[in-house]
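Q: Sequence in, structure out?
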Amino acid sequence: MTPKLRVGIAGVGFIGKLHAEHYAANEHVELVVVADVDLDRSRFVADSLGCPSYTEPAELLGKIDAVSIAVPTVMHRDVAEIFLREGVHML
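A: Exactly. Output:
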């Protein structure tokens, strides 16, 4: 059996929550961690999905195979560079 893809989400606003719901419903994916600058929002989403939460995207490194970047557009490049340097697949 193929192991599940371990996915994290950077940014759990409206779009990030949609990604989280779809990952949680996918039998081939394990949503393992979320991050958002708003700790309360990050915790709320993480608690509803049963995964840990962080405030810094870099804290996802080493825990995931792929990441959904769902931060505001102006922040995409900075966040993407964190994951690019480590060879993490991104959506």
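The two ends are 24 Å apart (CA to CA).
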